[in-house]
Amino acid sequence: MDTQVKICGLTRAGDVAAAEQAGANFLGFIVEATSSRKLTLAEAAALITGVKAHTVAVTVDPDDALVDGIKAAGFSHIQLHGSETLARTAEIARRGLIVIKAVPVASADDVTLATEYSGAADLLLFDAKAPKGDTQRGGHGLTFDWSILGLAPTPKTFILAGGLTPHNVREAALKTRASIVDVASGVEASPGIKDATLINAFMEQLRG
């Protein structure tokens, strides 16, 4: 299976090394956003030194200074996980980073609305909606009904997130035909602390 893998919410150098060694294509770092996996930009920048995989700075409603800092730090991608408008997404894209726009979905209507970002972002990431009242964006370990992705037009290339684990990743990839799968809590011992055994199991199950 040619599906690529993004391991997100990395906080430690050893976990970055384990993810790369396992064959992850994208490494995600939550930068200056409300999360149990939050890093400062300086901390995240230190972790990507020498990394060969694509590096993704995950942000929530970043201002221009943060976007420019992320670019200067050497990240290849920026992931927008907030309430960024279509216009703001396009504006960030013009600042020279590859843009991933994360969109929470629970219905086919949500998917249809999300595809409006296709012209502004380079990639769309479909994630499960957060529990009501929860301010953390992503990393909840919740799945959504994958069949809704077949009820509305979706880009040829997209990222699937939301509750993926070694136990369900292969089924998810086969059912959705996602180009990239994204995992955070599904390969953790605790929030922000990855488990190399789970990372390897995730990769092995996906590859079959």
Mean pLDDT: 94
CA(first)-CA(last) distance:
8 Å
CATH class: Alpha Beta
Low-confidence segments: none
Number of helices: 7
Give a count of the beta strands, DSSP E runs of length 2 or more: 10
Alpha-beta content class: alpha/beta
CATH architecture, please? Alpha-Beta Barrel
**Major β-sheet strand ordering:** 1-2-3-4-5-6-7-8
Provide the helix percentage: 25-40%
Strand content: 15-25%
Total number of domains: 1
The backbone outline, from C-alpha atoms, is globular
Q: What is the CATH homology-level superfamily?
A: Aldolase class I
Radius of gyration computed on alpha carbons: 16 Å
Main sheet makeup: 8 strands, parallel, barrel
- Encode the helix/strand succession as letters: EHEHEHEHEHEEHEEEH
Itemize the secondary structure elements and their pairings:
Layout lengths: L3 E4 L5 H10 L3 E5 L10 H7 L6 E6 L4 H10 L3 E4 L5 H8 L4 E8 L2 H7 L8 E6 L29 E3 L8 H8 L3 E4 L4 E3 L2 E2 L1 H12 L1
Parallel strand pairs: 1-2, 1-8, 2-3, 3-4, 4-5, 5-6, 6-7, 7-8
Antiparallel strand pairs: 9-10
Helix pairs in contact: 1-7, 6-7
